[in-house]
Amino acid sequence: MQLGMIGLGKMGFNMAERLRLGGHTVIGFDFSKETVEKLSATGSKGVSSLEELVKGMETPRAIWLMVPSGDPVDETISKLEPFMQKGDIFIDGGNSNYKDTQRRYAECKQKGFEYVDCGTSGGVWGLKEGYSMMIGGDETVVDHLKPIFQTLAPSATTGWGRVGPSGAGHFVKMVHNGIEYGMMQAYAEGFSIMKAKEPLKLDLGQISEIWRNGSVVRSWLLDLTADALQKNPTLDGLEAYVPDSGEGRWTVFEAIDLNVSAPVITESLIRRLRSREENNFTDRMLSIMRNAFGGHAVKKS
User: 137 — phi, psi (to 5°)?
Assistant: First the structure.
């Protein structure tokens, strides 16, 4: 099957390569000329413009977007539309907000295009391990794209599926990432507690390896953590700065709107926000208040 791909970052590039190895034809575009040339060197076809990408494809076309959420998705669709025909398919494989996805679906359907949202997880390991894909959209369109999803997934029958109508794929991926925040925070706090117990001289790398086998808390995330600790057991050269790509906060907003208590995911998001604050004003406020009502010592810089 033929697939157009726009956005050849590390994940998009690896997805294109997995599809090529699976026997599919990939035509890719990226604003980086070097990346386009690299794609062509692997055996896929890199093109230098969106028009060239569309005109080089058979109809009905299926074009996978791997671009940042928000305006870049709308702008890319707008630039593609003049070259496309009714029945062509847009696949948004990025981390778009599901409400934006539902709007884009309605707009595309009105113009005669199809729109599928595919929440995609797997990161840099997807080329080897396969990708987990949570898909939203019309059932007949998803079924048409089945060969693509089967090739990208860990196997033809595992790791992927249509989870509901338009927006459902990105909604489920949003919650997936919210859960990921909570899991990461729990691991981070547990290892921090063990590191702080200095008299026991605990080897965190050894402990992570023990937990990987037979433990209730074993997971792929722990596997990656164990590997990282083996390479850098004291986390030298790293700053306590943790960004977020949006899905965690969207999950918290949804929980509030739905009257669902989600304290773990919420707190993990707050911790990420706090990690970016230099000379934290909140903590300085706490210090000055303790000094004001109790005369407690204030540590000055």
Answer: 145, 180
Q: Which of 180, 209, 254, 267 is catalytic?
A: 180
**Burial tier of 234 (Cβ tally within 10 Å: 0-12, 13-18, 19+):** exposed
Q: Which two tokens stand for residue 251?
A: 């999950």
Rounded CA separation 151/92 (Å):
17
Q: Is 111 among the catalytic positions?
A: no
Residue type, 153: A
Tell me whether residue 180 is one of the annotated catalytic residues.
Answer: yes
CB 163 within 8 A of CB 101: no
pLDDT digits (tens, 9 = 90+) for 264-281: 999 999 999 988 888 888
Q: Tokens 């706490």 correspond to what residue?
A: 286
Interval 203-251: pLDDT, tens: 999 999 999 999 999 999 999 999 999 999 988 888 888 888 889 999 9
Q: Which residue has the tokens 């000094």?
A: 291
Q: Looking at residue 262, what is its pLDDT?
A: 96
What are the tens digits of pLDDT across the range 16-45?
A: 999 999 999 999 999 999 999 999 999 999
